[in-house]
Design the sequence.
């Protein structure tokens, strides 16, 4: 995400605020059907468009089969960085120089 805030539609703001409220309340992340019901959105395909836009704006994590719900990205989240592996140290052994 760049230094400027993404421009969101009213519906996208409503979805984001709903997810933020649930997160702050300590509730589990809702699925698309739960968000549709809470916000009175029909059909669910419309909600998928909103979710896709929030993912592209960097506000939601991309949905996966393992992930049970729509999850907000943590503030300050960045793409993972691949670090080089320099070597191995056996467990229980002190490296000698």
Sequence:
């Amino acid at each position: 995400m760049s230094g400027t805030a993404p421009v969101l539609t009213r519906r996208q703001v409503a979805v984001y605020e709903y997810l933020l409220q649930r997160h702050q309340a300590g509730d589990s992340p809702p699925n698309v059907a739960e968000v549709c019901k809470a916000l009175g959105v029909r059909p669910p395909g419309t909600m998928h468009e909103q979710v896709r836009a929030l993912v592209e704006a960097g506000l939601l994590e991309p949905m996966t089969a393992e992930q049970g719900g729509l999850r907000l990205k943590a503030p300050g989240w960045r793409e993972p960085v691949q670090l080089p592996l320099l070597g191995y140290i056996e467990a229980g052994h002190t490296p000698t120089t």
Notes: The radius of gyration is 19 Å. The chain is about 35% helix and 0% strand. The CA atoms of residues 2 and 27 lie 29 Å apart. The mean pLDDT is 80.
